[in-house]
Specification:
about 325 residues, 14 helices, mainly alpha
Length: about 325
């Protein structure tokens, strides 16, 4: 197991190196210029040349890339072209918001997806199974931006029972930022009302973000449970007179869990990678919205380093999923 983990960590080096090159090239291909964003109405040719020189953008591309890589090797991910803030500080300040939203979305997806997958699998070939299949296909197919706007229109405008944006009501609650997890900070501040309000702000973006993972988890759970239902040990357990609940938990769900855990890990990694559309629609101040704003402002340093850190997190989540295989299924051993 130790050798497997070390080998996977070493594989990160060429992956991240290749990613830095791709991101660097793609950011330079974006139309526009950071100097234009910085200068605004004062963007004369002379002023733009001075700004580009101060940012090092007048150098050849290969020199810019090697300078960026030199900073990375020293642990320096750069500073924002627009705000001059350290990229790591901005990332650490905003990442808790993305974690909070992603956890809410994946909890919703797991809590609904696994039971629905098991329920439809045990009723294979019935109208319940067909209806579940149709709903899961709709959940996978519907665009997040459309679903998010529809949720806002229904539950925040037509029936105003939930807030449509932000993380908390800033008018009624002032919560000191300690961890930048709004729900946790509300509890630390002794504001039960603020905690409930933070949860209410989580509902709509979590529903929008969790719909696709829910549909994927449901489909994989259904397929995996159907495979396990055909195994001899399941029929033997029923023949021995075990209760259905015992058979479902001990024999069916436990053995069907491995591919489901794989999908959950992948979906969690994707959600932590920054839900740009969801965070933009619901004005959620996380990493996704941060990178979106950087793209519109052509802030190369944030785009390069932000995407690199998200990629690192995604790979590490997948490594954790791989390691969990050995604990979920003793027949699997990494070597």
């Amino acid at each position: 197991m130790t050798k497997f983990i070390i080998r996977r960590l070493l594989l990160l080096i060429p992956i991240l190196l290749g990613l830095t090159l791709l991101i660097f090239v793609f950011t330079r291909l974006l139309p526009g210029d950071p100097a234009t964003t910085i200068l605004g109405e004062r963007a004369t040719a002379e002023n733009m040349a001075l700004v580009r020189e101060s940012l090092g953008l007048d150098r050849p591309l290969h020199e810019q890339y090697f300078q960026y890589m030199g900073g990375l090797l020293q642990g320096d991910l750069g500073r924002s072209f627009i705000t001059n803030r350290d990229v790591v500080d901005d990332f650490l300040q905003r990442f808790p918001a993305t974690i909070e939203l992603s956890l809410a979305a994946i909890i919703f997806a797991i809590a609904a997806g696994i039971p629905l997958g098991v329920y439809t699998a045990k009723r294979r070939g019935t109208w319940v199974d067909a209806g579940g299949t149709i709903l899961s296909l709709i959940g996978i197919s519907i665009p997040i931006f459309f679903l998010g706007l529809m949720l806002k229109w229904i539950f925040a405008i037509q029936f105003p029972i939930l807030p449509d944006s932000g993380r908390i009501d800033l008018v009624n609650y002032f919560i000191p930022r300690v961890t930048n997890f709004m729900t946790v900070d509300a509890l630390i501040a002794g504001e039960p009302g603020g905690f409930i309000d933070a949860l209410r702000h989580l509902v709509l973006p979590a529903l929008a973000l969790g719909t696709i993972p829910l549909a994927v988890i449901m489909r994989i759970t259904r397929a995996s449970v159907i495979d396990v239902l055909n195994e001899d040990y399941v029929r033997t357990a029923h023949a021995k007179g075990l209760r259905d609940r015992t058979v479902d938990g001990r024999h069916i769900l436990r053995n069907a869990l491995l591919p489901v855990v794989t999908v959950i890990g992948l979906q969690t990694g994707l959600l932590l990678g920054g839900a740009i559309l969801t965070e933009t629609i619901f004005t959620w101040g996380g990493v996704g919205r941060w990178i979106y704003d950087a793209v519109t402002a052509r802030d190369y340093q944030i785009i390069q380093s932000g995407v690199l850190m998200l990629a690192l997190i995604f790979v590490l989540v997948n490594l954790i999923v791989d390691i969990s295989y050995a604990f979920l299924n003793p027949r699997i051993r990494h070597s």
